[in-house]
Amino acid sequence: MIKICVVTGTRADFGLLLPVLIRIKNDDGFELQLVVTGSHLNAQYGNTKNEIISSGFTNFTEIEIMTNCQTRDDMAISVGDAIVNYTFYLKSMKPDIVLVLGDRYEIFAFASAAAIIGIPIAHMYGGDTTEGAVDEFFRHCITKMSILHFTSCKKSRDRVIQMGENPSRVFDVGSTAVENILNLKPVELGSIEEKFSFKLSDKPLVVVTFHAVTTEVEKSLDQQRELIKAMEEISNVNYIVTKANADTMGTEINKIWMEEGAKHSNWLVVDSLGRENYLSVLKKAEMILGNSSSGLSEAPILRVPTVNIGNRQKGRTLCDSVICCDAEREAIVDAMKRAVSEEFQSICEKCVNPYGVGDTSIQIVEHIHKFMDNYKGEVKSFFDIEMK
């Protein structure tokens, strides 16, 4: 039996990991070691470990780390402390392979501990780019520490190979976001309305998520204010605002959301909707607004327009259903008006999804089995490509 350790640190990465976790849990060839860390364990971010439990995963290890990182100095300290805690866990559990997803600092810390100890790492979604976040270099560092790679699209696979990774171990498997949506059993809006005591069905819905742009953090609050001005200008809708991640300036951003939410009767500000509620609301939404990766990977599958603000997601592969604009009130308002136009709605209906066909988790589990059947502990080498 293969001992496979999977780590989750946020509501976002758990949602993407879930189809893979379910397959691993139901596979007699695997022994799942699940680590729950990061903002999952912080009440300030919605105690999202409860979503993990409600999804059927009750046997996991909690590892607390510093999550209220208001500066990049805080983030560096958190990474250092986390590596120590993660190392003790890995030494005790001795997994055969570690599976990590994405690019956040807690995932970088976990991968660092595993790589130094000598545990092989499988990495989901290397090769993506987010030029507006420090996650960019975290992701690329995780790629270089990993021996097995699962990318979300062909362009990302090409980038991973360009970084010197052996093509025989780099697989374009698509995104589990597609799989989640194709398998979604929508929650009735009525039950969501009852849970959050907020009317959703009397006006068009707009889902809003805004994170700090960590490469220009000093501008983040000003950019949020510009977004708020745009939301106030287009007031004939209901706004569902999900709070920011546990990133630099996240606490300050969320404080402003709470203050502003109290002033606007058509705003619902929540720590987390929960995965099924979120996707169900998104499916009914008129658009998604902000700078979340959900607008690039999930909304297009549902044919929902995305207004992507600023530079946080700069460099990502985009569907035609995504409108990019500057973080300025006028630009945001213009983009929102375009998103609901008949012309753009027609574009959304015809957009082609570059992120797979919904079998991502099947491919990942099969590739891990094949890799472990043949892995002899060899050290990976740099793969040279011919330069033109």
Describe what this molecule looks like in 3D.
- The protein is α/β, with parallel strands linked by helices and 388 residues long.
- It has two domains: 2-174 and 358-374, Glycogen Phosphorylase B (Rossmann fold); 187-350, Glycogen Phosphorylase B (Rossmann fold), CATH 3.40.50.2000.
- It is built from 15 helices and 13 strands.
- The chain has helices spanning 11-25, 49-54, 72-93, 105-117, 135-145, 154-162, 176-182, 189-196, 220-233, 250-261, 275-284, 294-297, 329-339, 342-350, 360-374, and strands spanning 2-8, 30-37, 61-63, 97-101, 121-124, 148-151, 170-172, 205-209, 238-242, 267-270, 287-290, 306-309, 322-325.
- The protein has a seven-stranded parallel β-sheet with strand order 3-2-1-4-5-6-7, with helices on both faces.
- Strand 4, helix 4 (105-117) and strand 5 (121-124) form a beta-alpha-beta unit.
- It is globular and about 60 Å long.
- The mean pLDDT is 93.
The number of helical runs is 15
Mean pLDDT: 93
Oligomeric composition of the shown chains: single chain
**SS elements, strand count:** 13
Beta percentage is 15-25%
Order of helices and strands: EHEHEHEHEHEHEHHEHEHEHEHEEHHH
Strand order of the largest sheet: 3-2-1-4-5-6-7
Radius of gyration: 20 Å
Number of domains: 2
* Shape annotation: globular
Q: How much helical structure, as a percent, in the residues? A: 40-55%
CATH topology value of the largest domain: Rossmann fold
CATH architecture of the largest domain: 3-Layer(aba) Sandwich
Please outline the major beta sheet: 7 strands, parallel
Taking pLDDT < 50 over at least 5 consecutive residues as the criterion, the unreliable ranges are none
**CATH homologous superfamily designation of the largest domain:** Glycogen Phosphorylase B
**SSE class:** alpha/beta
Report how far apart the termini are: 45 Å
Give the C-level CATH assignment of the largest domain. Alpha Beta
